[in-house]
Amino acid sequence: MTGPLSMLNPGWLLIAVGIVALFLPMRRVRQGLTIAAPIIAIVLLSLADQNINHLSAQAMGIDFIFYRVDSLSFIFGLAFLLAALLNAIYAWHTDDRLQDGMAIAYAGAAVAATFSGDMMSLFVFWELTAVTSVFLILRAGTRAAYFASMRYLAIQVLSGVLLLAGIAYVYHSRGDLSIQAFTSLKEPGAILVFIALGIKAAFPFLHNWLQDSYPKATVVGAVVLSAFTTKLAVYAFARMFPGHDALIWIGAVMTVFPVFFAVIENDLRKVLAYSLNNQVGFMICAIGLGATGVGDALALNGASAHAFCHIIYKGLLFMSMGAVLYRTGTTKASELGGLYKSMPWTTVFCIIGAMSISAFPLFSGFAAKSLTMSAVGHEGYTVVWLMLLFASAGVLEHSGIKIPYFAFFGHDSGKRVKEAPFNMLLAMGLASFICIAVGIPAIVPGLGYEWLYNLLPYREEAMAYNPFTLGHVLTQMQLLVLAIFAFVMLKRLGWYPAEKPGVVLDTDWVYRKAGYGLFTWAGTIWQKAGPAMTAVFFKLTGRAYDRIEDTFSPRGELARGRLGSAMAIWTAILLGLVLLLAFITSS
Amino acid sequence: MSDETPNDTRDSNGRFVKRAAETAHRLHTPSEEGVHPVAKILFGWTENKRSGTFIFWGVAVLSMVLIVADLGVPRHEYVEIAHATGFYALWGFCSFAFVVLMGWPLARLLRRKEDYYGDPGGPPVDIDPDMPVEPSAEGTYHYEGDED
User: Which residue ranges does the record annotate as region Disordered (chain B) (predicted)?
Assistant: First the structure.
């Protein structure tokens, strides 16, 4: 494609539409724009030539690359745009200019960052994702959401500041800001960028902003939030840190620990937030495989395919829980149950999302996760492979079974509500279609999972991989069916813990309770100790001043009487020494 | 029900359009108990008292079939331990059971009251405006911590 449109980063189009939407009171026109923009952006992206700079500029001696597409950014950008489209349809029933505008601008910022070819452009859009997305939490209008959004913003901005500091170091050492893979994690610039990305990817101990904020967002907001921030970080890792061993273990830990939190969490949107953490772990782990700075083709394909499928099926799960929240006013498992009676279509779509994330054969998760699992096994990381396999059973527990079972089946809460609005069902239906369409075998060549594999960064390696071997399907079914058997057995025995209301402590306790407590304690202490310390200070300085005045002032001790001969000699000696020292130091 | 169908939706064959409209209407109209008709078609079987037993034994038999099938299906594995017959089945069962059973001690260790951090918040403002508002069972929250 040539002409001015070829230079338009699709993300910029979405950001522009987002700004227009903020000021457009005509509801249907505004919403029509938010649906049309991702469709036009997908067309623009599909027509864009790959591996060339479509728009670049030079300023202050720095080369800025505003729009560049390659096979890695294409798959992430496409997934973001599809998510933006589904989100806009999902939000059709609302009338909220701020939310409409910020949702599409947030998507646009993520897309624009994905197609940025230099670190400074990446930083600008990195920060824009934070600034736009915070409104999706804030708009929930509750007191808890307000505080959560402030914590969210602080942590996101911290990530941006670290990224900027890292970029400064990189510019100092490299002399240019083009996005390249780091070959070492020893230089300060690389470490700062790594931590900045790690915050957004919700690394262990840096993860709790996610579980704190997403479940407190609006119905639509949580769906929008689930797609972009963490996957943008995954993209940035795949771009800048492929093959770094640290990521293998960080990713493996990320897949395992959220499983334990999710099992005891009562808020089903928070369960999904933990599940998000777990899924991003698979992608991070895959990015860490292979040669440092290069990565492993099969694994990078796995991370990309997983990100694409995850954006859709996690969005679908958040949509289904959003529909439940919209109709019932809660997503607490202890208050739900039996909703299949009044929301059967939502139930069906939720089950499709649950089967996709659990990687059942014929669903998208299977086609995507298989690549990562094979790559980990192939590279010989047996312990990591076992951890990921454990986490796969864990995903089935919290996202595959817990979400649909406690919301739609289980104990009947007696809630009889209306089915979700049509636009929500349409968005969920489309997401379900994608989940199945990219998960089925390629009966028609080029369709089914092959359609997805064709878009992956290492196309030839992807097309040579067949997830539907008899052995692979059998082993995956063994894992899942026996895990389901464990569920029905534990339920039958009454050993499955009941869902109870409550908040589960996590690492945010450190700053929400201990840190806050420390600050308030320090404040109280200062209020009491401050005046006393000030009084002591003034007393001591007052005394010192009095002494000095008594000695050196015109009325002081030294001003009295005549200058003695001994004092004249000592003064001469002192001046002589100063002169000698001056000579020595100057020579 | 049929009275609500406007006469002008009938075509020259009359009955066919009316029936289709009635069928569509029936499929989208919840019963007096609030149960959606599609729910009865898709999930009505779960209300059977014996469905739990049926699912249990169904999954048990399927599990056995999958393990037995493992004996006859050639597998290409990268990890040595995965060659063992039924390895995935055992790993899946044990992992799931471990995660669930760990829920008991972890809940005791980590679960606190909902207002532990202060105001736990209610539903967001963009929920269904037609939703019947139920009084909060929690009553007035005691504010403390950073959200005081």
Answer: 120-148
Tokens of A521: 């304690």
Taking alpha carbons only, the member of B47, B54, B99, B56 closest to residue A488 is B56
Q: Contact B82/A377, CB-based, under 8 Å?
A: yes
**By the 8 A CB rule, do A21 and A34 touch?**
yes
- pLDDT at residue A51 in the model: 87
Residues of A in contact with B77 (CB under 8 A): 377
Can you give the three-state secondary structure of A128-141, one letter per residue? HHHHHHHHHHHCCC
CB contact under 8 A, A483 and B121: no
- Length of chain B in terms of residues written: 148
**A271 in Cβ contact with A396 (< 8 Å):** no
The answer to whether A497 contacts B52, with C-beta atoms less than 8 Å apart, is no
Q: Look up residue A484 and give its amino acid.
A: I
Beta carbons of A343 and B36 less than 8 Å apart: yes
The pLDDT of residue A555: 79
Q: Which residues contact A553 (CB under 8 A, 6 or more apart)?
A: A559
Cα(B79)–Cα(A380) distance, rounded to whole angstroms? Answer: 7
Pair A107, A156: CB distance under 8 Å: no
Other C-beta atoms closer than 10 Å to the C-beta of A574 total 10
CA distance B64 to chain A (A): 9
Q: What is the pLDDT, as a whole number, of residue A561? A: 66
Q: Which of A400, A432, A455 is nearest to A315 (CA)?
A: A432
CA B81 to chain A, closest CA, distance in angstroms equals: 9
Residues with Cβ within 8 Å of A181's Cβ and at least 6 positions away in sequence, in order, are: A239, A240, A241, A242, A243, A293, A294
Q: Write out chain B residues lying below 8 Å of A516, CB-based.
A: 145-146
pLDDT value at residue A4: 81
Contact by Cβ (8 Å): A274, A351: no
Residues A12 and A114: beta-carbon distance below 8 Å = no
The region, left, alpha or beta by phi > 0 then psi within -120 to 50, assigned to residue A545 is alpha
What token pair was written down for A468? 């539907």
pLDDT exceeds 60 at position B138: no
User: Does B106 sit within 8 Å of A142, measured CB to CB?
Assistant: no
- With bands split at pLDDT 50, 70 and 90, how would you rate the model's confidence at A549? confident
Determine the Cα–Cα distance for residues A307 and A365; give it in Å rounded to an integer: 10
CA–CA separation, A480 and A361 (whole Å): 10
* Structure tokens belonging to residue A317: 């799960």
Of A255, A389, A467, A371, the residue nearest B89 (C-alpha):
A389
Q: Min CA distance, B23 vs chain A (Å)?
A: 17
CA A10 to chain centre: 21
Nearest CA in chain A to B107: A264
User: What amino acid is encoded at A568 in this protein?
Assistant: A
Q: Pick from A141, A478, A502: which is nearest to B92 by CB?
A: A478
Dist CA B73 CA A502 (whole Å)? 47
Give SS3 for A55. strand
pLDDT tens readout for residues A124-137: 999 999 999 999 99
Q: In chain A, what residues touch B124 (CB-CB under 8 Å)?
A: 139-142, 145, 216-219, 221, 325
- In the three-class reduction of DSSP (H, G, I as helix; E, B as strand; rest coil), residue A59 is classed as strand
DSSP-assigned letters across all residues of A284-316: HHHHH-SBTTTB-HHHHHHHHHHHHHHHHHHHH
Cα–Cα–Cα angle for A312, A317, A323, rounded to 5 degrees = 120
